[in-house]
Fold this sequence. Notes:
The complex is a heterodimer of chains A (114) and B (113). Chain A is mainly β and 114 residues long. Chain A has strands at residues 4-7, 10-13, 19-25, 31-38, 42-51, 54-57, 65-67, 73-78, 87-94, 104-105, 109-113. The termini of chain A are far apart. Chain B is mainly beta. In chain B, the strands form three sheets. In chain B, strands 2, 5, 6, 10, 11 and 12 form a six-stranded mixed beta sheet that branches. In chain B, strands 3-9-8-7 form a four-stranded antiparallel beta sheet, with no helix packed on it. Chain B has a two-stranded antiparallel sheet with strand order 1-4. The chains are: A mainly beta (114), B mainly beta (113). The A-B interface holds A 4, 31, 33, 35, 40-45, 48, 50, 56, 58, 90, 92, 94, 96-97, 100-108 and B 6, 9, 32, 34, 36, 41-46, 49, 51, 90, 96-106.
Amino acid sequence: NAGVTQTPKFRVLKTGQSMTLLCAQDMNHEYMYWYRQDPGMGLRLIHYSVGEGTTAKGEVPDGYNVSRLKKQNFLLGLESAAPSQTSVYFCASSPGASLRTEAFFGQGTRLTVV
Amino acid sequence: AQSVAQPEDQVNVAEGNPLTVKCTYSVSGNPYLFWYVQYPNRGLQFLLKYITGDNLVKGSYGFEAEFNKSQTSFHLKKPSALVSDSALYFCAVTDLNFNKFYFGSGTKLNVKP
Lengths: 114, 113
């Protein structure tokens, strides 16, 4: 039972480069989320999706884009990476409001922008 | 808007002693509250939740939390701490539709032998 899988686990980018983080879940969850974790700031929501084909902005969406073309996948894109985007990124999924249950997290992607 | 606050950046406790990690919340409507634990270089693991019902909620690894509506608190507790409990703990709350989970800033728990 894989749960939530994030790819890659580590990445170093140069300023201005682009990349896509992939999140895949095998629990048939409706909702998916992208968070970033920075020291002393907890987890901040970047973007989220409440279903296939839908996305919405979270607390810190600037500099990121997302897509949810398939229910099981949620992609986070950085078009032009900046040092301020150095962080640990977590993807999560949840069944949605009907079950009122917790979110399940991936293992994280540690991104360094130099 | 929903929010949670964890007033302590760090909590130190001796092994075998009881531990408390504090969380207060601010919500519109009924609160749905969660505790997660994060070990180094790992993702967040769910510990327990309060949705409705009994104010004392029991969860994984011997942890429990008490929901206190009058004090808007949801403190995490354990009667006897273990060194292996040392980790980063996050309190979280959702909005009414579970569209978003809002996290506190985290509390680092250090349990010393």
